[in-house]
Amino acid sequence: MPIKILPDTIASQIAAGEVVDRPASVVKELLENAIDAGASQIEIEIQQAGRRLIQVTDDGSGIPADEVRLAVCRHATSKLSSAEDLFNIQTLGFRGEALASIGSVSRLTMITNTHENPIGAKLAVEGGESAGISTIAAAAGTRVSVEDLFFNLPARLKFLKSDTTENRHITGLVTRYALAYPHIRWSVTQDEKPIFQTTGSGERFEILQALFGPTEAGKLMPVSFEERHLKLEGFISSLSLTRSNRKDITVFVNGRWVQDPMLTSAVIRAYNTMLMVGRYPVAVLFINIPPELVDVNVHPAKAEVRFRDQDAVFSGVQRAIRRGLLAFTPIPDLNATRLWGRSVAETEEGQAWQQGNFNVAAGQSDAAGGGEFGTGSELETAQPQPSLPGSHLPLLRLVGQVASTYLIAEGPDGLYLIDQHAAHERVLFDQLMAQFNAKSIPSQALLDPVVIELTPEKAGILEQQLAALISLGFEIEPFGPNAFVIRSIPIVVDRSDPRLAVEAVVTAFEEDETPLMAEVEARVAARVCKRMAVKAGQILSEAEQRNLLLNLESSQSPRTCPHGRPTMIHLSVNLLERQFGRTGAI
Questions:
Q1: Between vectors from CA 108 to CA 106 and to CA 114, what angle results, nearest 5°?
Q2: CA 230, CA 240: separation in Å to the nearest integer?
Q3: Least C-beta-crowded within 10 Å: which of 1, 43, 217, 460?
Q4: What is the DSSP secondary structure assignment for residue 560, as one 8-state letter?
Q5: Which of 141, 173, 201 is the last residue of a domain?
Q6: Angle of CA points 279, 285, 291, to nearest 5°
């Protein structure tokens, strides 16, 4: 195939693919233009998740009529005049590609006016081809309407996610920019329903509540730090507020939302040794650094940055967060627990425990002798006890409860230490799924219906999963903007707060937006049961303990909870005899 120059339309669509990959990208480019224009109010209207319409209206400086046509041309900008300006960028936009890229893959209409002119200008662009400019009565500011996004790129249109997911990306984007610019009055409407709005009072905590909810926002701690050229402020989570992924670590650099692995890593490192493995903090940070020390001209989407002194920024962010944590949270003494005059971590049994060498009832054991305690200061190496035969539990005799967390039971082959929370999860899950498969889930109507209020993002997730919850015995209805009313719950889980179950479902699908459809009900059920199961530290009556054991014995998978965590540890008779020196091993 001979080499040839691509037509302008194809070249524009290729360039647009780097800037506009989903409706949220369009919203980002338009709201950044509005912020650069000095807007004090920004209104965003969305229809059909942005496929049908994205409209952004601001009261900024507007565009003079004689420059409107230039505004939708590629590489046309008022924010740069020389190559040196690239190293002193103080605006969010600077490439001059946003409007041209959006216009090449949609039907774009722009109405704009400056504060000095009584008459505004209107320009339409369709698939990269612009029509003439007409005059129109318009208030000062700019309104950009983007209709039929990707109408000329059906392949790109097919790659968009569900309306709920796309709306969630848009809402998450706007709420984060609202945090960075709290003095602006923001308003978001989706399919003619108000989703998010602020007063423009400048109070960030008001927006934090909309982004995370009142409860979680109350667990965020303010942080402020200044060192040489680096200034940082924002909010970090206490140790009681964590996530299973990093998506709620939000970082702004000079007012620009960036996804920078180095900065994210600095936040996580600041929490080192303070959070469980696999848990991540929540953070909203605003970093200010002289423009000449940061390069934002890395990618057309402007979501990546590079620092002249990356190590200094990394260590500064880490120190700022660590100091904030030390100010609010005492650090536990890891060497407080000692055994035979040595810390647990220094002993062989401590290492065996950390390495998971104890024989779990699922039948997994590691190195020989893992977890066996000898007498005196030295430990005797012994052979691992055999794994349990079969998949079912033998008949167990209840002995009692330890630390209000574990049940002790005796079986024909030794002792069983049972985690009451994990075991109850398994029992509830088996019962709920058995009723679901039989298409007969009895429900209990609540005497007082429970109203739950969610953030805009989470409300969209719950709407998408309402059918799964209803199929599992819940009765939930919309109850105003971002609110729902719970009228009944499955009898299996009728002893707990239904709000917790619904919030757990939302969190599960927030972390994984694309589960297999065949797994939706099972995932919902697993999350509900995890939240509704008895907790560690909860005292159970003897009857409740016996009932839990009986139900666990009848389970088809009694040795793990629905999420795969072991429900029990087995201590064989042989192991006990070795510990007491009855077999000559000691």
A1: 155
A2: 28
A3: 1
A4: B
A5: 201
A6: 135
Element (H, E) at 344: none
- Give the pLDDT of residue 585: 47
Name the residue with tokens 């209805």. 477
68 and 135 in contact (C-beta within 8 Å)?
no
Is residue 130 packed enough to be buried (19+ CB in 10 Å), middle (13-18) or exposed (0-12)?
A: middle
The pLDDT of residue 9: 66
Distance between CA atoms of 105 and 129, rounded to whole angstroms?
Answer: 10
Q: Are 57 and 133 in contact (CB under 8 A)?
A: no
What's the pLDDT score for residue 136?
Answer: 92
What's the whole-number mean pLDDT along residues 347-375? Answer: 36
Report how far residue 570's alpha carbon sits from residue 382's, in angstroms, rounded to the nearest whole number.
Answer: 16
Among candidate residues 166, 201, 236, the one where a domain is terminated: 201
d(CA 299, CA 304): 6
Identify the CA nearest to 314 among candidates 289, 297, 281, 277: 289
CATH number of the domain that 308 lies in?
3.30.230.10
CB atoms within 10 A of CB 537: 10
Helix axes 520-532, 456-471, angle to 10 degrees: 100
Rounded CA-CA distance 73/82 in Å is 18
pLDDT in tens, 542-562: 999 999 999 998 888 888 888
